[in-house]
Write a structure and sequence with these properties.
single chain; alpha/beta; Rossmann fold; 9 helices; 37% helix
Amino acid sequence: MTEINLSANHARAYKEQYWYGENFVAGFLNVDSSSKLNILEIGPAEAGLLKYFHEKGHNCYGIEYSPVRHNNSIVLNDAFRDNLLHGDICNVNTYSAIADIQFDIIVLRDVIEHVADQKLALQNIFNLLKPGGKFFVSFPPKYSPYAGHQQVFPKKLGKLPYIYMLPDFLYKKVILYTGLNQKSVDYYLFLKKNRLSIRKFKSLTADLKYKLIKIEKYFIRPCYEYRFNMNRTLNPLAKIPGVDELTTLGSIFLLSK
């Protein structure tokens, strides 16, 4: 039997994932329980969001890259654990068991910036999506205050907005100063390099023949309601090109095939 030693952070993440599915994604995608949908999340971590939709009667699947988070998910979600795969969206062989399912909804929440080959990932997702299916994507834009994910650094200096824009040699010193190790340095330098702008994402998805249904740019992200008890707020500067990239903390897209 699979065992779990769930950290406090992962336990909180699981609860937030469930909350986010119930309080934001369901409404954003206009999902109800009138028909059973095939729903796939790429990078579900503990799969709390999928648990919410499973409880509403939908067929839920996940492809998780991290062995630790995947192990968490299958222990926490026994009812649909066989649908939770350890795989890589860039490697079709790792999720071949579900490759023939045409998904009504695919969710990619704050994951695309962690994927090295973003175009390949988006192409593979396009292939999994049924014609007319919905694709939910969220990510912090390339030049947003916390696009480097530095808000999780142990010391206050590392949490400063935009600090990831420092030259690599200085940013590395900041990361090490906060108490993180060389492996973390490599990870955060990768994130710095791999950031994705709103305009680049729109260009990538247009090239792959996705249809853009809507985009929302948030100054206070919906997840902040759960984390900090702050009301979600759309970015009042969202219509100003360039400024939107600098001031949007979270961009959320709805696309279709």
